[in-house]
Design goal:
Layout: E1 2-13, E2 16-28, E3 33-38, H1 44-51, E4 59-64, E5 67-68, H2 74-84, E6 85-88, H3 100-110, H4 115-128, H5 144-157, E7 162-166, H6 174-188, E8 192-196, H7 200-204, E9 209-214, E10 217-223, H8 243-256, H9 258-288, E11 305-310, H10 318-325, E12 330-334, H11 338-341, E13 344-349, E14 354-363, E15 373-374, E16 382-387, H12 398-401, E17 405-409, E18 416-427, E19 437-440, H13 442-447, H14 449-455, E20 458-463, E21 466-468, E22 473-476, E23 483-487, E24 503-509, E25 514-525, H15 530-534, E26 546-549, H16 550-557, E27 563-568, H17 574-583, E28 586-590, H18 598-634, H19 637-645, H20 650-680, H21 689-693, H22 698-724, H23 728-735
Parallel strand pairs: 3-8, 3-9, 6-7, 7-8, 14-19, 16-18, 22-26, 23-25
Antiparallel strand pairs: 1-2, 1-4, 4-5, 9-10, 11-27, 11-28, 12-27, 13-14, 13-17, 15-18, 16-19, 17-18, 20-21, 20-24, 23-26, 24-25
Helix pairs in contact: 3-4, 3-5, 4-5, 5-6, 8-20, 9-18, 9-20, 9-22, 19-23, 20-22
Bound molecules: adenosine-5'-diphosphate and magnesium ion (MG).
Magnesium ion (MG) binds next to helix 1.
Length: 736
């Protein structure tokens, strides 16, 4: 059966060569029950390991069934071991977290047996070693002798012709040891059994041959009994492990050690939650910080816009506009471009909703596109609103906006400047561009001029030898030209205790012009006389106001345009157009030459940093969890080494581990999904989280699952590689 010719094995350890066995010559036959004995360090284990293909040899030849093995690859030895060898070890090498049944079954699962072939076989063997009562007991609860019986049972189910036992009784008391030898002897019929023992008396009764070793050599080889020479060799029929069996083991391993399950589960849950939330918060800030260029002074930053003023600082006239229109590249002119850049509030105060839009204004004749909803205005009080689709979730709230009257209200609230009806809506190209505009007839626009100019002007009053900038002026039909009416509170601010007849100078200043009114205080109002003197209702609101003649008021603000905007057809030639405008005696400047607010470039940097931080965080998270999981799995090395000793391949080990990690991470994943849905649906109330979770979509959930999968695969690969980088026996010795 086995023949060794001058076989030697050396150990290389830190430059020192030790000889394990030297020039061993042996012939072993089926039916033999061989006891090997000798002092510690005499080479018994080395010999057994070489015979069982667990370790390599350097010199000599070993024949298996007449075949020479020096050219055998690792794979060939694996094959040999599965067909021929069953090992029993001094320290049992069982899976403590498995039951007796599961331990014995394991050998068959790894050898590709089908489920229906397994059960009877396993139960029979367990009965043979006398452990039927304990078949569902965890191995960790058994005594040493019982454990070794399980090991024998496991060695037996794999019907191999050779059983190799290295000091199987070394850890047992005399009684149990006797038992084990007896069982082994029974097993030995028609097999080749090789056992190492210190206790010759124990085996003398059964052994057919006793070999004594010393210093790596055989010093005595004593045959006690003749054996039957023509026993047929029946090798173990094995197959590749089935996928089904891999799943069975993977699942079993997931749950069989509770503490390990929860540790892994916690890590996976942590990764899932951390990844999801980090990603969501990244998405959220990204959404919030989309960089739409802004400028404090200009609302409309279209690239084809040129701002013009007359070089002599006078107002534009019809002649100027005609000259400009002759320029080839000019698309259209916005004469009163102050409307574009002034933001006014459009308000609607219905019973249920308060809706407000902050908008610039434009002439409907400059509206070149189509409305998305509604229609183009047909009368002066109708307008088109252009804004972000997301502003006020306008698509969902159309009822509150379309065909509804909106008010432009004066500073004090109750003087309504204009009432306008939104009949058409146009959405901005970019949803994140929240700037708003309204388009209306030029007549309507003209009506807003006083209001707009007032908004853009600074007002100062000079009264009682001092300047104030907090007073407002209000137009009234009841006040005569050159006069002003104020509250009687003012009387207490002067020594004379009466302001009647005193002078007020009202100064208006903006970037285009300055103007002033020189008025005399005609009268003061009290609560009772307020309405009679001013024509207004709300006394409280106007206590600080100065009432002036309506015509004079309008003369302050109803000024012609000092600044216009030209829109070009082709932005590529915009510089030439600027030049041509300058030739006409104007100061012309592209809107793109005005500095954009610094905030936007800051936002870009912030966004970049956020992206980098997120990427680094995800990578760090990945590796931290990777290493934690590897540390947790270190405690499982013994288990996987055992699998290897029982004949499982690198692929098997890798896949069983992948399945285990995969099942565990999937559970963590599902738990996270449940948690998210609880938070999202406000079953448990959180302030910030529901909003955050909204940023996770199907795509993100799939991505996170893929990352978990990737971690599982990478880790099982790495762990399996480590387990298989050395010979089986070296890995085993390291782990045990
Ligand atoms: P036994 O089983 O009879 O006690 P071994 O076969 O374990 O003896 O050891 C034989 C010799 O080989 C001893 O001198 C031992 O020190 C050496 N040896 C065994 N295993 C190794 C190893 N992994 N590395 C280095 N030397 C080893
Ligand atoms: Mg030994």
């Amino acid at each position: 059966m086995l023949k060794l010719k001058n076989v030697s094995k050396f150990y290389y350890n830190k430059g020192i060569i030790a000889s394990g066995i030297t020039k061993i010559n042996l012939e072993l036959k089926m039916g033999e029950f061989i006891a090997i004995t000798g002092e510690s360090g005499s080479g018994k284990s080395t010999l057994l390991n070489v015979i069982s293909g667990l370790d390599s040899y350097e010199e000599g030849e070993m024949y298996i069934n007449g075949k020479e093995t020096s050219h055998y690859t690792e794979k060939d030895f694996e094959d040999y071991r599965r067909k021929y060898i069953a090992n029993i070890f001094q320290n049992f090498n069982l899976v403590n977290s498995y039951t007796v049944y599961q331990n014995v079954e394991l050998a068959l699962l790894l050898n590709g047996y089908k489920k229906r072939q397994i059960k009877k076989k396993v139960l029979d063997i367990i009965k043979q070693v006398g452990l039927s009562k304990f078949k569902n007991t965890k191995v960790s609860k058994l005594s040493g002798g019982q454990k070794q019986r399980v090991a024998i049972a496991r060695a037996m189910v794999k019907e191999t012709p050779i059983i190799v036992a290295d000091e199987p009784t070394g850890n047992l008391d005399t009684e149990s040891a006797k038992d084990i030898i007896k069982i082994l002897k029974e097993v030995a019929k028609n097999k080749l059994v090789i056992i190492v023992t210190h206790n010759i008396e124990q085996v003398e009764e059964y052994a057919t041959r006793i070999i004594t070793m010393n210093d790596g050599r055989i010093i005595e080889d004593r045959k006690l009994k003749e054996v039957n020479n023509d026993i047929a060799i029946k090798v173990n029929k094995y197959n590749k492990m089935t996928l089904f069996n891999k799943f069975r083991l993977g699942l079993r391993n997931t749950f069989n050690i509770k503490s390990k399950f929860f540790l892994l589960f916690s890590v996976f849950l942590f990764i899932t939650l951390a990844l999801s939330l980090e990603y969501a918060s990244f998405k959220m800030t990204e959404e919030e910080s989309v960089v739409i260029p802004t400028n404090r002074f200009f609302n409309d930053l279209s690239e084809n816009r040129i701002i013009i003023k007359k070089a002599d600082k006078t107002a534009f006239g019809a002649k100027d506009y005609n000259n400009i229109k002759k320029i080839e590249n000019v698309d259209y002119i916005v004469e009163n471009d102050i409307f574009l850049d002034t933001k006014i509030n459009l308000n609607r105060n219905s019973i249920s909703e308060y809706v407000t839009f902050s908008v610039g204004m434009n002439d409907i004749s400059n509206f070149k596109e189509k409305v998305d909803v509604g229609r183009i205005p047909e009368s002066d009080n109708e307008i088109v609103l252009q804004t972000s689709r997301k502003n006020y979730y306008i698509e969902e709230n159309l009822d509150e906006v379309l065909n509804k009257n909106f008010l432009i209200e004066g500073i004090s609230g109750d003087n309504i400047i204009e009432q306008l009806k939104i009949v058409g809506i146009k959405y901005n190209d970019n949803d994140k561009d929240y700037t708003g505009k309204i388009y209306m007839s030029s007549e309507q626009l003209e009506k807003l001029r006083v209001y707009v100019n007032k908004m853009n002007s600074k007002l100062r009053t000079f009264f009682n030898n001092q300047y104030d900038s907090y007073r407002t002026i209000v137009p009234s039909d009841k006040v005569e030209k050159g006069q002003a009416i104020v509250s009687d509170d003012w009387n207490y601010q002067v020594e004379e205790r009466s302001v009647s007849g005193m002078n007020i100078i009202i100064e208006v200043q903006n970037i285009y012009y300055t103007d002033e009114l020189d008025l005399e205080i005609e009268d003061t109002f009290s609560k009772n006389s307020f309405n009679r003197l001013t024509g207004y209702e709300s006394f409280d609101k106007y206590r600080q106001a100065i009432f002036v003649n309506k015509e004079e008021y309008e003369s302050l603000f109803n000024k012609p345009s000092y600044q216009s905007s030209v829109y070009v057809k082709n932005t590529e030639n915009i510089d030439e157009t600027v030049q041509e405008l300058e030739n006409l005696g104007m100061d012309a400047k592209k809107i793109t030459d005005y500095k954009k607010d610094d905030i936007s470039s800051n936002q870009q940097i912030v966004k970049l940093i956020k992206t980098i931080v997120t990427v680094i965080l995800v990578i760090v998270l990945f590796f931290v969890s990777y290493f934690i999981i590897r540390i947790i799995l270190k405690s499982r090395n013994i288990y996987y080494t055992t699998l290897r000793m029982l004949g499982s391949t690198y692929r098997d080990v890798k896949q069983i581990l992948t399945i285990e990690l995969f099942v565990n991470s999937s559970i963590a994943y599902i738990v996270s999904l449940i948690l998210f849905s609880i938070i999202k649906n406000n079953i448990i109330k959180f302030t910030y989280l529901p909003m955050l979770i909204k940023y996770l979509g199907i795509k993100e959930y799939v991505l996170i699952y893929i990352i978990l999968l990737l971690i599982s695969i990478l880790i099982s690969r790495k762990v399996s590689k480590n387990l298989f980088k050395d010979t089986a026996i070296n890995t085993y010795n390291e782990e045990v």
